[in-house]
Amino acid sequence: MGACCRPMRRVICTGMRGAAVLTVLAVETPALAHNELDGVRACLLRTESADRLACFDREVRKLAKPTFEGRLNVVTEPFVIEKPTLLRFQSDGVIFVLYLKNGNDEVIQNLHIGGGGEGTYLIAKPGTYFLQINGSDHWRIWLEPQNVSSPLQN
Predict the structure, then answer these.
(1) Do residues 130 and 92 both lie within one domain?
(2) How sure is the predictor about 39, in pLDDT bands with cuts at 50, 70 and 90?
(3) In total, how many domains does the chain have?
(4) Whole-angstrom Cα distance, residue 73 to residue 136?
(5) Same domain, 118 and 137
(6) What are the angstrom distances between the C-alpha of 85 and each of 121, 137, 150?
(7) Type and span of the H or E element at 129
(8) Is residue 140 situated within a structural domain?
(9) Does 115 share its domain with 72?
(10) Can you state the angle between helices 15-28 and 49-63, rounded to 10 degrees?
(11) What is the pLDDT of residue 51?
């Protein structure tokens, strides 16, 4: 009854490259349900280039595998970020508390979701961090490095 938690390397492609990756996924991955690609199809209908790019970027994030995933309570291995990174988290349970801690075991931010759902937090400073997760069900966490001009920074 343990939790699985493993760092994974992934590549997020944007723009035309992202569209090409999504097209390949749609053709070569029958496991993708029809409704998972509806958002991608909607992006194709956007007429403004910047709007279309933002749409594809948003849809690619939905297909990216989590950096960490598990169930119930877990403390991750330390990880290093070198530039601002969006911490995106989802929970299926009614209780989800996430502590972002630095290498000295100091709490940098306490995040939570009540009743399941998704949230984000921007880790602005480079450094070594780890996560302490206390949940009542399954959860997923992504670490998404940001461009300096990213609209996701808040």
Answers:
(1) yes
(2) confident
(3) 2
(4) 8
(5) yes
(6) 9, 25, 10
(7) strand 127-135
(8) yes
(9) yes
(10) 50
(11) 84
